[in-house]
Amino acid sequence: MNLLEVSHLKKYYETHKAVDDISFSIQQGSIFGLLGPNGAGKTTLLRMLTGIFYPDEGKITFNGHPFDPEKDIQYIGYMPEERGLYKKMMVGEQTLYLAQLKGLSKKEATSSIKYWFDKFDINSWYTKKVDELSKGMQQKVQFISTVLHKPKLLILDEPFTGLDPINSEMIKQEIFNLSKEGTTIIFSTHRMEQVEEICDHIMLVNKGQKILDGSVAGIKQEFKQGLFKVGLGTMPNPAQMATWHFNIIETHDKAFTVKLNEDSTTNDILLHFIRQDIPVTYFEEILPTINEVFIKQVKQTEEADLKTAPVLS
Ligand SMILES: Nc1ncnc2c1ncn2[C@@H]1O[C@H](COP(=O)(O)OP(=O)(O)OP(=O)(O)O)[C@@H](O)[C@H]1O
Predict the structure, then answer these.
(1) Per residue in 156-179, pLDDT tens?
(2) Is 26 helix (H, G, I), strand (E, B) or coil?
(3) Residue 205, C-beta contacts closer than 8 angstroms, at least 6 positions apart
(4) Cys bridge to 286: 31, 212, 227, 266, which one at CB 3.0-4.6 A?
């Protein structure tokens, strides 16, 4: 089931098209990565999904019905990139206030706060002012404040900024746990290695438009280039490497990166060595990283834009 369906969404700042006809859907429980270079329109899009902005055009369907920001906001948790805790308020008092704003009773809020503060072992922070916490500690409080009301849709904008590796790991595990329990997560970041580790689906936007949308595994398959790593037990001489089935791209000792030619198959690579009695110690397909796909796609749209731009005389 899709928790969110977005259809032909548009948002303009005067004449500038910040979000320009974007459509996509997100399955319940998915961890969906929203990617794009600076100024692509991600924040504008997230603000429409959280009811902060109304779209100029298009439709958002949330949990099977037309999105109603006033009613649905209690089912959404949004951790924006600019953090929004009140600096002079005590941590406990503040989390209680934020949970009640999201519709929890005082009793429910207190019990949820206890659960999360125990889990993160931060009970001693309860009576501290936000001001007295480090940036990373504030980040943890902000994360807790975003999930206290058990949102159906959790939107996290750069949730790991300022966190050390241990705290990043803790938050990452919580993201996985929440997804397993059925929470749908939109995760916006510029850190591509985190996208590979965390997301099951990604959407890439540039200049307000969607340029790629699919499962992480599917996108890696779509952009693969027939590259393989072959490890050999003995060093072949140049004549033993010569074949029309593949080209050698890189050599490291007895390990080779090869590019398969279009009419050949992976078995042709293996047979090439086996027939010559050269032992194959390992064989692995090299898939592109999401970072490589991101750079390739963004560059491609920039080049296409340059070609269609009017020539100034
Ligand atoms: N309040 C505003 N008024 C006018 N233009 C705006 C406003 N907010 C954003 N923009 C413009 O809209 C475009 C999209 O901005 P947005 O903040 O949504 O991008 P982003 O993808 O979140 O970028 P970043 O990764 O840098 O945070 C940019 O060109 C930006 O300059």
Answers:
(1) 999 998 899 999 999 999 999 999
(2) strand
(3) 22, 34, 35, 36, 40, 41, 42, 45, 211
(4) 227
Nearest 5°: CA angle at 183, between 39 and 69? 60
Q: Is the reported ipTM for this assembly greater than 0.85? A: yes
Tell me the pLDDT tens digit for each residue of 122-132: 989 989 998 89
pTM above 0.90, yes or no: no
Cα-to-centroid distance, 39 and ligand 1 (Å): 5
User: Cα of 80 to ligand 1 centre, how many Å?
Assistant: 14
Q: Is the CB of 41 under 6 A from ligand 1?
A: yes
Whether 44 lines ligand 1, by a CB cut-off of 6 Å, is yes
What does the pLDDT look like over 227-286, one tens digit per residue?
999 999 999 888 888 899 999 999 998 999 999 999 999 999 999 999 999 999 999 999
194 lines ligand 1 (CB under 6 A): no
Contact 151, 98 (CB under 8 A): no
Q: Does the beta carbon of 36 sit less than 6 angstroms from any atom of ligand 1?
A: yes
Pocket flag, ligand 1, residue 288 (CB < 6 Å): no
